[in-house]
Amino acid sequence: MVSSIDRRSLMFSAAALGGSFLLSGCGGGGSDGGGAIALPPNLNQSASSKPELSLFVEAVAAADLTATLDGSGPFTVFAPNNNAFTALLAELNVSKDALFADKALLGAVLKYHVLSSLVLKANIPLGKAIVPLGGGFFKIENQNGDFKVTDGRNRVSGIVSTDSLAINGVLHVVDRVLLPANKDIVQTAQATPTLSILVEAVVAAGLVNTLKGTGPFTVFAPTNDAFAALLVELGITKDALLADTALLTRVLTYHVIPARVLKAEIPLNSPITTVQGQTITINSSLQIIDQKARTSAIVATDIFNTNGVVHLIDKVLLPA
Predict the structure, then answer these.
(1) CATH number at residue 236
(2) What is the pLDDT of residues 236-264, one digit of tens each?
(3) Beta bridge partners of 238
(4) Could you tell me if residue 72 is inside a domain?
(5) Cβ atoms < 10 Å from Cβ of 1
(6) Cβ(127)–Cβ(264) under 8 Å?
(7) In the structure, how many helices (H) and strands (E) does the chain have?
(8) Number of domains in the chain
(9) Same domain, yes or no, for 166 and 52?
């Protein structure tokens, strides 16, 4: 995504962007009359200098990650401000002491905010999957000039300041603590009322363990209305469809791509091979054309999970 750079090139990049690289007065600094270069702070020092990040700095120390942010990098850190941490405590209904005492959880959450490369605001891959140091993924979008982060639990955070440069990376400040995904594709479908028939179909076809697997997968999930329309189209009952496991398996696996593909990453107007083996095509209007030349609209996109992403569609796709 972004090429690695060493400390020296990072210094020049920061200088070009107005970073605070200071040369002490010539002729007055040392016994030889030479000047001394004052290096910029590292990421941990940079965060420590910002009062609004005091809880973040405290959390980093509690999780034993100070040495990481003192390291050579380069790193990109999306640092939650104090208001973000206060809101998280209310959301999780825990005290600060309890959260900071859980080093495993705290470390996983904090590493979800760190990238192992330098990504300035101008280089953010908008709408595409961003993989942090701790695993999982999130995305960032530009919504009318406001940069928004969608995390693994489909919660949205705003980026309130950007491009605070350090010797070992760059710091962006966010207004909500990001959380990695905690539900797989099946659990997400089970928690979505409009996907209840899809859940029944997945169970009937014996595909639950497959869709709970490591993946990553992309699932084009037909809504209940889509299944109701299919029953009319085929002239069969729901019970008859669910009983035909061979047909059901062919149809359901035709809705799954064996890769994670966010909306911004869809290869438009090109054949996309499904787990079933046949292809679908998605046009610029986000309409899916199946092997029977039927068209389905994608009505909701980028629902994140531990093992992939789900897009909702309004018509069941059919292979040839």
Answers:
(1) 2.30.180.10
(2) 999 999 999 999 999 999 999 999 999 99
(3) none
(4) yes
(5) 12
(6) yes
(7) 13, 15
(8) 2
(9) yes
Closest CA to 133 of 150, 149, 117, 111: 111
Q: Are residues 136 and 197 both part of a single domain?
A: no
CA 89 to chain centre: 22
pLDDT for position 39:
78
CA angle 125, 128, 130 (to 5 degrees): 80
Residue ending a domain, among 174, 202, 230, is 174
Are 166 and 233 part of one and the same domain? no
Q: Give the closest residue to 220 by CA, choosing from 260, 176, 265, 255.
A: 255
Tell me whether residue 103 is in a domain.
Answer: yes
Q: Mind listing the pLDDT tens digit for each residue in 37-52? A: 777 899 999 999 999 9
Q: Which long-range contacts (CB under 8 A, 24 or more apart) does 18-21 make?
A: 19/165
The pLDDT tens digits for 192-208 are 999 999 999 999 999 99
Residue at 17 is within a domain: no
Closest CA to 182 of 269, 129, 108: 108
For tokens 């489909």, the residue is 154
Structural domain containing residue 291: 185-313
Q: Please check the confidence at residue 153 and state whether its pLDDT lies above 50.
A: yes
CA distance 263 to 310: 10
DSSP string computed for 220-236: EEE-HHHHHHHHHHHT-
pLDDT by residue (tens digit) across 163-203? 999 999 999 999 999 999 999 999 999 999 999 999 999 99
167 is a domain residue? yes
- Predicted TM-score (pTM) of the model is 0.87
CA atoms within 13 A on the CB side of 131: 8
The pLDDT assigned to 36 comes to 63
Residue positions counted in the chain: 320
Q: Are residues 208 and 305 in the same domain?
A: yes
